[in-house]
Amino acid sequence: MHDESTRHLPSPDRFPGLRRRGFLAATGAASLGTLALAGCGGSGPGGGEDKGDGTPKRGGRLRAAFAGGGAGETLDPHLSNLFADVARAKALFDKLADYGPDLSAQPRLAAKWEPNKTLDRWQVTLREATFHDGKPVTAKDVLYSYRRIADPKQAFRAKASLEPIDLDACRATDERSIEFVLKRPTAEFPNILAAFGAYIVPENATGFDKKPIGSGPFRFVSFAPGRSAVLRRNDDYWDGAPHLDEIEFVIANEESARVNALLGGQVEYAHELNPTTARAHEGKGQIEIVRLRGSSMQAFCMKTDRPPFDDKRVRQAFFLIADRKELVDGALSGAGEIGNDLFGKGYEYYADNLPQREQDLDRARALLKQAGAENLKVTLDTSAVAAGFTEAASIFRDQAKQAGVTVDVKMGSKDSYWSDILDSGTLCCYRSGAMPVEAHISQRLLSDSTTNATKWQHKDFDALYQQAQSTRDKTERAAVYERMQRRLYSEGGFLIWGFADWIIGTARMVKGVETKAPANTLDWARFDKVWLA
Description:
It is a single chain. By secondary structure, this protein is of the alpha+beta class. It folds into 3 domains: about 15-90 and about 215-270 and about 510-530, D-Maltodextrin-Binding Protein, domain 2, CATH 3.40.190; about 95-200, Dipeptide-binding Protein, domain 1 (Alpha-Beta Complex); about 295-500, Dipeptide-binding Protein, Domain 3 (Dipeptide-binding Protein, domain 3). Helix content is about 25%, strand content about 20%. It has 14 helices and 21 strands. It has helices spanning about 15-20, 85-90, 140-150, 190-195, 255-265, 275-280, 310-320, 325-330, 360-370, 390-400, 415-425, 435-445, 460-470, 475-490, and strands at about 60-65, 95, 95-100, 105, 110-115, 120-125, 170-175, 175-180, 200, 220-225, 230-235, 245-250, 270, 285-300, 335-340, 375-380, 405-410, 425-430, 495-505, 510, 530. Helix 10 (about 390-400) links the parallel strand 16 and strand 17. The model is unreliable at about 1-50 (pLDDT under 50).
């Protein structure tokens, strides 16, 4: 989950990244002038030769609009937080591994990884790759990067993910080999290498906003925080040079500004569109709509350590109150699929053999009566912090009324919602982006998990997780994860009603955008594989 806050900047600076060359951003009926975005050299859109045969073409600059973070933006990859940060970071830098479409770890800078018999030491061998200054990527760079991330004085996002590694005991066994020593057996160690924000930088690297040097597919040209970043093709990239000459990331915080810029030809790629926009333009021929199916989990979070949800019968009743199709149709405008109270639908280890839960109001009322919770009243915390949250809260309130439950919907602050709901309240709207099922469990469902919003704390469940982590055989490990998910399905605190599509808009000339990669995975926002036809 990205901790992104929506910023509303006063006019005339509402869309600084698109304003500076005459872009008139408004709300739907804006007049769109020609936007000549800044950068050094390079041809404009369509600069690549088009022979009409559908094969990748080389050349041109692609301009991609993202919501941003204002003047405080940075190119330090270890501080990546917003989607714009991540897209820029993956263009400039590499990780040892990254998540595939099913959220399994895929090798990147790491050519291979091998564990010992007890799964507490892993040997990682690097592929031959170079940084933008021509120096090779070495084991020392990897250890420097991970130790920088783990610095207790810093607030880097990947710090929690690297916690299982004993970095003091790790060592470079040669220039391109590292022995990672772990604090405990960990079968899912490759997921750590793919962790959000775990980028590899040169040893002793500093000053990322002035001239960052990475090993990624694009090299740094210029950066204006809150406005734009221009990057140029790295012809020596280990995974093949990008098709584009250049890419420019431009900032437009309002969805309407991103859409208007796309429609007016100021950008060729617009990130994170809402379902209404997609429905209005899909199949009309002016722009292309790309739907990354089921990218975002949508849920209600029940706190299991306090009344009324400390009684599992009440939680089970709420599972049966939800009409998931009505929630998907109403809150997501149909742009998604129904959930089954488990995270990670379609991902590795997801327990897809459990029966799809349906609304059963009679059974829900019976469970509430058994729990002595007839005429129950509960507050549901929500906010406009994420698309569909307020709509989902209203729909569920009406569904609960049919079971005799009174739901009081309480609107929270967009700026502090995620921190407010972590420990406070009893029931709240919740969402999460893509991550492995294992990571969801470790971050949110163990007794000492730092983001345990449901307060699910059971020592026997923790023990099962440790058993799964230390199980070498993948089939046997999957069986343990299924056992854990069966328990969550029966009595957990996440009422997962749907999985929302992630929606991207592109100009018709843009080709090569991956259509099956959830946000945060390797092939999402992977501009080295995109070209202009």
